[in-house]
Design goal:
Layout lengths: L2 H8 L3 H12 L5 H9 L2 E12 L4 E11 L13 H10 L2 E13 L2 E4 L5 H6 L10 H17 L2 H4 L11 H14 L2 H8 L2 E12 L2 E11 L1 H7 L5 H10 L3 E13 L2 E4 L2 H8 L2 H4 L11 H6 L1 E7 L7 E2 L4 E7 L10 E9 L2 E5 L3 E3 L4 E5 L17 E9 L4 E10 L22 E4 L4 E8 L4 E3 L3 E2 L5 E7 L7 E9 L11 E6 L6 E6 L6 E8 L13 E9 L1
Parallel strand pairs: 10-17, 21-27
Antiparallel strand pairs: 1-2, 2-3, 3-4, 5-6, 6-7, 7-8, 9-11, 11-15, 12-13, 12-14, 12-16, 16-17, 18-27, 19-20, 19-22, 22-25, 23-24, 23-26, 26-27
Helix pairs in contact: 3-4, 9-11
């Protein structure tokens, strides 16, 4: 690696000498390693191979070089620092390189003509070797990861590949812009993050490789689902306080360059690390308050519209209200619940899902919810009524009972446990249109037709219809109703559709594709969608009820 000596036998120009000097000095190998390479290198000149043509004023000679095989050490996982590299270079086997040196005579001097041969490149290949030490990779990966968490563009720029689209200035601007985009709850996530390099994941492949970094995040989704927040600042505070965490493993790809370890795919890595900026966009409007929190916000209950002692006399309705605690009586605190009403020990009404907010959370029973317990005067029969509030997962929130006195009709003495759908309690088929000859329940699982009052053990049910219409319509409209055995009063359809047929057969099916639950089902078939203001516009053709057990 004596530039002056090489120049003297190759007749180099000054610029070529400088280029060679720069090449030799560019080696990233420590000086003591280069010394060992020099010490363990040797050559042998095969004098018998020497040839010289006086007429051509040129000649050649074969030279055998023996040099340490440094390339074979690249990617060795046992070489983790400079000391281990130095020891490995001392022990590594030599490799043989045969070079036929070609000379030409200029005046009285001979000059080497083929210094740019591939054999010379092979002889000095170690100069370009960039050894990656595990300790350097681990340190660089750790520093880069911490820079991601602090959004430090100036540090990030020192560890990404030089051919990246981003320089130091643009990275600093991008990280500042990223910080400005963050919502307060995203800032809280970033503040609670940590990272750790998985040293065992390191894979070296020459002067490239991969290593994994495990990022730990506050479990922001669990925080969001486990509480109710009236502002995003409250959510951010809860994220900061949580001990729940999640992990995400990110694989870094790296290469050794002259100035150290550099990592590729900056955009992909920063996207992996800050993935929550795109994925976590909570809405305070869509919150479902956890049932245990909802139960803790019940201060007490009050009966309304009755007597001072919470009872009722000759009333068409009753109403029980939850009075929330002060912090839950705000209109920004939504209550999602349903309620059940009991007459004595009998469950007589189950409400649909309810939404309410404010100082009073209401549950009522009136004519529309329970026509079966209204007397001829439009008043509730006397007796003990109870109302229970439940969160949507079935957690009891509050419950109370009251006494209703009906001074004229007294208490109800009939059977109120029979399921009812819109005033119909009997089971079986009822055919109204004479063109319909059969309207029977059909078990789609078993392929069986039923002319019975009840059925069990099936999940797929429908109606098989046999009809011959004079005008040959190509469709009929049908509705399915369901009562779980407790509801009293008008119900809305749980399924509705059209059945199409071409008249080639008298039989067609009214399919029900929803999940079956125990209770009373009714199917009603019309010529078309009925108009409640004009029943004659789409006459009811047939209907049937069945009890699913």
């Amino acid at each position: 690696m004596d530039v002056e000596g090489i120049s003297s036998v190759t007749d180099m120009k000054k610029s070529e000498e400088e280029e060679l000097e720069e090449f030799f000095s560019s080696s990233s190998l420590p000086e003591d390693v280069l010394d060992v390479i020099r010490e363990n290198s040797s050559y042998y000149i095969d004098e018998e191979s020497c040839r010289f043509d006086k007429d051509e004023e040129s000649g050649s000679v074969d030279v055998y070089f023996e040099v340490p095989d440094i390339d074979s050490l690249l990617g060795d996982p046992d070489i983790t620092n400079e000391e281990e590299l130095l020891a490995a270079v001392r022990e590594v086997r030599n490799t043989d390189i045969l070079m036929t040196m070609e000379f030409e005579q200029v005046g009285n001097e001979l000059f080497l003509k083929n210094f740019d041969s591939k054999e010379v490149d092979q002889l000095y290949s170690f100069v370009d070797d960039n050894f990656i030490f595990a300790s350097d990779v681990i340190s660089a990966a750790s520093t880069l990861s911490e820079a991601y968490l602090s959004l430090d563009g100036s540090v990030i720029s020192q560890y990404i590949l030089a051919d990246s689209l981003y320089d130091a200035d643009s990275l600093e601007y991008l990280m500042e812009l990223t910080a400005s985009w963050m919502e307060c709850y995203q800032e809280a996530i970033l503040e609670g993050m940590s990272c750790e390099v998985d040293e065992d994941s390191l894979i070296l492949n020459g002067d490239t490789g991969t290593i994994d970094v495990v990022f730990t995040y506050p479990d922001y989704e669990s925080v969001t689902e486990s509480g109710f927040f009236t502002s995003y600042e409250d959510l951010a505070d809860a994220i900061r306080e949580t001990d729940l965490t999640i992990e995400r493993r990110v694989t870094y790809e790296f290469a050794s360059e002259d100035d150290g370890v550099r990592f590729s795919d900056f955009e992909g890595m920063i996207g992996e690390v800050l993935f929550f900026m795109n994925e976590f966009d909570p809405s305070l409007e869509d919150q479902m308050i956890p049932s245990d929190m909802l139960a803790s916000k019940v201060d007490h209950t009050e009966w309304w519209w009755g007597e001072d002692d919470g009872t009722y006399i000759d009333t068409p309705a009753i109403e029980l209200c939850i009075v929330p605690t002060d912090d839950a009586s705000d209109y920004a605190f939504p209550w999602s619940f349903y309620y059940e009403v009991y007459y004595g020990d009998d469950l007589i009404y189950v409400s649909p899902e309810m939404e309410d907010c404010g100082s009073y959370i209401e549950a009522s029973l009136s004519v529309s919810e329970c026509p079966g317990l209204i007397d001829d005067n439009g008043l509730l029969f006397g007796g003990t009524y109870g109302i229970s509030f439940y969160a949507m997962d079935g957690t009891l929130l509050a419950s109370d009972s009251t006494e209703v006195t009906n001074t004229e009709s007294g208490s109800f003495t009939g059977d109120i446990t029979v399921p009812d759908i819109n005033g119909i309690t009997q089971t079986g088929e009822t055919i109204i249109d004479p063109n319909v000859t059969s309207f029977l329940w059909y078990d789609m699982e078993r392929g069986a037709v039923y002319d019975t009052d009840s059925i069990d053990g099936t999940d797929l049910l429908g109606i098989t219809v046999v009809a011959t219409f004079e005008d040959d319509p190509d469709e009929v409209y049908y509705e399915y109703y369901y009562n779980n055995g407790h509801q009293v009063g008008p119900l809305d359809p749980v399924y509705e559709d059209y059945a199409y047929f071409d008249g080639s057969s008298d039989e067609f099916f009214l399919m029900y594709y929803e999940t079956l639950e125990p209770g009373l089902y009714m199917c009603m078939m019309y010529e078309d969608v009925p108009d409640n203001n004009d029943p004659a516009s789409a006459p009811l053709l047939a209907y049937s009820t069945i009890l699913v057990e």
